Fold:
Amino acid sequence: MTLVTCREASFAYDGHTVLSGLNVTIESGDYLCVLGENGSGKSTLLKGLLRLKAPQSGSVELNGLQRGDIGYLPQQTSDRRDFPASCFEVALSGRVGQRGLKPFYSRADRLAARESLERLGMWECRALSFGELSGGQRQRVLLARALCAARKMLLLDEPVAGLDPVVTQELYRQIAEINRERGLTVVMVSHDIQGAVRYASKILHLRNQQLFFGTTEEYCASDVGKRFLGGCP
Structure:
């Protein structure tokens, strides 16, 4: 099932085009990695998928995706480190979009938060303050929050930025496991080309326009992939 269709989509800020020529389809179960340098339009694309930024021209169609279908993990910033809440409360807050008009979280909401934390190995830390955690632990809790919010798609903006290599590989493994076992579509923005081709099923490479879109195998064989990667690992 096709979840997202971009047709000649472009985005601009104050009349200045920052991303153009997008012709992309995202299917249910895809693991799409969006590559590109800083300022290449990667985060702008995520804003388009979240309906936070309308295209300047062309179209971005979300086919059957409703509120509560998409979980979003933004880039980690230092202002979240002192957030006054427990790990469980942070994960549970991902259910706000699915709570509707109900004033309190349901048993199903709490169960979803527990399952997400357990999947990411953070249930034992559920009572700890979010601010007490290491960078890798915070990312796992925030990923659990996004997982609680997602019924069909996860949008991840640089989820491993600033993490050490061991934590990075573990987080990659967990994201791939979620994609495979839960069937959730994953769209991940990353600078890490090697990590992208190791785990993703599709690649979108941007440089303020679409340089490449296709399968990982096609990317490795393409001129763009050879230029930036030198072949698959």
In short: The beta strands are 2-13, 16-27, 31-35, 57-62, 70-73, 153-157, 185-190, 202-206, 210-215. The mean pLDDT is 90.
